[in-house]
Amino acid sequence: MKGLSFDVLRTAKKYKLINYGERHDFVIEDILANGDFRVKDIHTLERYLLKDLIRYGKGPDFEIRELDF
């Protein structure tokens, strides 16, 4: 597993997640008590939980990186 771990993710920061060839750019809106994150997609403005993106497992290309823009 490359990139950042879940425990270093911070509110109001922008990240990209790559999993199974799909890229998701999002900003973290809230950190929930159960260890999940409420995020908002930067491009579509859709809101969802971070665990929804990894519901089917972590692929060999799984990576989380902070965006600099």
- Class derived from helix and strand content: mainly beta
Give the CATH architecture.
Roll
Q: Write down the CATH class.
A: Mainly Beta
Evaluate the radius of gyration.
11 Å
Defining traits:
6 strands, SH3 type barrels, globular, 69 residues, six-stranded mixed β-sheet, 1 helix, mainly beta
Detail the topology: elements first, then pairings.
Blueprint (H helix, E strand, L loop, with lengths): L1 E2 L10 E6 L2 E10 L5 E5 L5 E3 H4 L9 E4 L3
Parallel strand pairs: 1-6
Antiparallel strand pairs: 2-3, 2-6, 3-4, 4-5
Can you walk me through this structure?
With 69 residues, the protein is mainly β. It has one domain: Roll (SH3 type barrels). Helices cover 6% and strands 43% of the residues. It has 1 helix and 6 strands, in the order E-E-E-E-E-H-E. It has a 6-stranded mixed β-sheet. Strand 2 and strand 3 form a beta hairpin. The model has no long low-confidence stretch (mean pLDDT 93).
Summarize the structure.
The protein is mainly beta. It is built from 1 helix and 6 strands; from the N terminus they run βββββαβ.
